[in-house]
């Protein structure tokens, strides 16, 4: 099969979704499945919906246009230039500013269909959001637009500066919801507490307040908690694997020689050791993947990478040109591989059988694997 590619098991995506949906339902929170890391893949989206997600969210308008769901949410503040397209493809969008709100109202009036708005509140992570003290004015602005519907309030933490969701900042959001509803005599449909980084708080606090929805991507796709990149118990951490083909195998010195300056991407990593290295080059580079997020097979060490080459120490593995090597992925590696035009995306139906045991690991994901044309047994065997 053509490489490089990223193989995704849709059955594991479905099962991860179902497990999280069931756990969060116990505390009154529903799940919006986020597809931005997979370019709005209809296959992944369908797996999330089968797993119980109430709707789908994406940060890119073209991705949302590919999706079919009971509720489609644009999870990034709309670009002013895309207001018309946003009301065509999204039922709801997350918003912060009056200029865009006015444009959405105008665009919605031309379609004859009201557009839902979730106002985002700044709770300390300093990305998008309205200051809590300014929220009443923003609410009045939305209610003053005839073709906008105030669907709810929301927040986002941990993405920009790593601020952890907790009872204090989530309590601010809940209190603001109560204030808005009482002041305007309305009932909000959604209180969107945040992303996968909210899971630990939501499942342990006992005080979720008015938060009734989370936007989950990384937790479903990779099975890890974004706050510490640790596996979430019971979830699959191996739903996706990046696969590359070996294009050179050679025994080379442990260290480079000659005068040295910067390498293609700055200072080259230090290479240590004194003996020869059983080295391989794979057709996989920074145009394809973030190498810092790759987890190689056990016994294999990543030595360096350039635009188009990944160099590894094979250790004791017997590998030949034409063999394939699979890598576990962290979020950065996963995102870049999924969005690279040079990486083929392959989805497998898998088996989401209820009760099957998910594979987890002690790190942030499982190591990769080696598929050889002959044998992958260690050289010492």
Task: Furnish the topology, listing elements before pairings.
Layout (H helix, E strand, L loop, with lengths): L4 E5 H16 L4 E5 L7 H9 L4 E4 L2 H5 L6 E3 L8 H7 L2 E4 L2 H14 L3 E7 L13 H9 L4 E8 L11 H18 L5 E5 L4 H6 L8 E4 L1 H5 L1 E2 L4 E2 L8 E13 L24 E6 L11 E2 L5 E5 L4 E4 L10 E6 L1 H9 L4 E5 L20 E3 L10
Parallel strand pairs: 1-18, 2-3, 2-9, 3-4, 4-5, 5-6, 6-7, 7-8, 8-9
Antiparallel strand pairs: 1-12, 10-11, 12-13, 12-17, 13-16, 14-17, 15-16, 17-19
Helix pairs in contact: 1-2, 4-5
Provide a descriptive summary of the structure in words.
This protein has 381 residues and is of the alpha/beta class. It has two domains: 10-226, TIM Barrel (Alpha-Beta Barrel), CATH 3.20.20; 240-253 and 271-371, Lyase, Ornithine Decarboxylase, Chain A, domain 1. The protein has helices spanning 10-25, 42-50, 61-65, 83-89, 98-111, 135-143, 167-184, 199-204, 218-222, 331-339, and strands at residues 5-9, 30-34, 55-58, 72-74, 92-95, 115-121, 148-155, 190-194, 213-216, 224-225, 230-231, 240-252, 277-282, 294-295, 301-305, 310-313, 324-329, 344-348, 369-371. Strands 1, 12, 13, 14, 15, 16, 17, 18 and 19 form a nine-stranded mixed β-sheet that branches. An eight-stranded parallel beta barrel has the order 2-3-4-5-6-7-8-9, surrounded by six helices. The radius of gyration is 23 Å and the shape is elongated. 46% of the residues are buried. This is Alanine racemase N-terminal domain-containing protein. GO terms for molecular function: alanine racemase activity; pyridoxal phosphate binding. Residues 355-381 have a biased composition (Low complexity). It comes from Pseudonocardia hydrocarbonoxydans.
